[in-house]
Amino acid sequence: MYGVRRVSVAGKHLVQLENKNVRRCKRYYSAPLDQTEVEVPFSNGRNLRLSSGRYAKLADGCAVASLGDTAVMVTAVSKTKPSTSNFLPLVVDYRQKSAAAGRIPTNFLRRELGASEREILSARLVDRSLRPLFAKNFFYETQVVCNMLAVDSANSPDVLAINAASAALAVSDIPWNGPVGAVRLGFIDNEVIVNPTRRELQESILNLIVTATKQNLVVMLEGSAKNMLQQDLLKAIKIGTKETQHVIQSIDKLSKACGKKKRELEMAKELSGEVEEALRTLAGMRVREIFMNYTHDKLSRDYALNDVRTDVLEKIRANYPDTDVALVAEGLNDLIKKVFRDLVFEENVRCDGRTFDELRNISCQVNMYKPLHGSAVFQRGQTQVFCTVTLDSQQSALKMDSMAMLTGDGVKEKNFFLHYEFPPFATKETGRIGPAGRRELGHGALAERGLNPILPENYPFTVRLTSEVLESNGSSSMASVCGGSLALMDAGVPVSSPAAGVAIGLISRFSENDTKHMEDYRILTDLLGIEDYMGDMDFKIAGTKKGITALQADIKIPGLPLKIVMESIQKATEAKAKILDIMHDCIEKPRVEKKENLPVSQKLELEVHKRSKLLGVGGINLKKLFLQTGVQVNQIDDTTFEIFAPNQSALDEANEIIQKWLNTERTPELEFGGIYSATIVEIRDIGVMVTLYPGMPPALLHNSQLDQRKVGHPSVLGLAVGQEMQVKYFGRDPVSGLMRLSRKVLQSAALR
Question: Which residues form a coiled coil (predicted)?
């Protein structure tokens, strides 16, 4: 079933070696020496191809994943000497190359510049899929680079990048407990679609990426849904996890065929038993007392733990001067984490005194400041977000570049977008304030996916929602969903139903990295910041009372059984309903009575021949209108215009001005075939502009209709501005609506 093909080239002689347990491949490829390729069969017949050995042979590992005509190459390189950091220094770079799609970048320099938002979000997908399977003591700088070789208009490259990265690490000599496999899932007509095309995704109510490892253990989940029912989502996750096993088995075949022997890691330094015992004696009970003091808040608990750290490190340094201080600090952190986790199992109470299913205290308020179109403050424990909604014309929609359309969902422009800000004062810190970083982009994109399904289609305004985190102690992205939903209703946006979000955590016990057979676990509803740091999972789920709109699972252990995934989604659904009830007490439904400062828009139907009165020469009338009233007029088609005003009074003023333009001096009835006196108002290369009556928009009398002789320029006839002449009127052009005038026909009549 899983064919492994190694092809060697010697002149024109091709030799193909097949695995005896697989069907013989019918196609023969001319490939470079030592290239090995496997094919991953999916249930729907859309097979994925993985290969290694052709490109980037100096890298520790390289693999290419192809689906349809989309191909992604991923390389993995790791240093041979450990870094001084006490965490995994893994960097994932994902680059969208315009050349891969046969395009040229549209920026001034016509080359790829800094990473775009989509590139950063795709890199985060790959990072979160790989990181949990590295060993705890792996502190070697590692870089995974994802390059698009070719992109078609049907298959997205992000899932291919995850699978190619898994294969690159598997065939490399980098120690890694993979492989993992990833699939994208859609849901159309109650049927789960594996690796749907871009066109199918537009019809699907689900866009979910599932990454899993062996034994059906889930490593990462990320997706959005259009109010999808819980049971349908669970069905999709189960099918997706099963399909990933085909990818994993194929990567194992590829690794056996051409993989390198894994390098030996340097043994990490360990504390002596005497120092470990001293740490337990000096810190164990003190840390336990801090975590059992349920009156502590975020800051007081952190201060108390820092005091213990400082005191213990000073005593250890005094009593054991030859011991590495950094190693002691790491050992103390491990002890604090162990005490925290053990207390969860022993006391069945969390560090803030809550039960496992209990929510923090929630309060919310809307309509904060008069100038804002919509605003809300959502507070959950010590997490606080301030959300604002701004409505603008459709011309303010976010235009997507061609590469974003090809590699995303095909949307050309977005009339709803959410911007998430996390300033350093939210955690009582100092630091950089500037453009959004990788974390802020990821959290903002998740919150946007959680709210997008509840917005109305064909809404006449562009909606910008900002969420600024003022305090943070966990789940700020899900608080943004709650606060954003309240702000949208405060602005009068007709959302289908309010949405809320909650984060679910996990504390588990297992041995020898065997997460399939867990000894014990506790699922935590409404995650605290310290529970996220000390725990094993951060599972964020957003949705309405009816269904789910977005989810994102960050799993820190080497895979999660499906049973725990299902339980977590159930816990989130129950918590989400409680949060929505609290939000309902603040504001029940979208505001019906519009605020005075809300923008308004209306359509203006105009006859074709009156467009010039509205626009003026070179559009000067519309420019004047905008400067005087702030009102924008945008043309939709030949006869329809959209008027956007910042408020109702500005719209009323603009309507008065427009009506004056359209109704100034009643247009006289012109008779077809009638002869009129025309006044020249402008000389052009192609003719003269004339008026037949005062206030008339100038009409063109073309060179071909000026004289019986051929005229190259009106000046040869001695014509000048202000001169009058007789012309004949032949009605209006049925297509353009322009006047048809002629002076030539009158001359021919005189000659006769």
Answer: 251-281
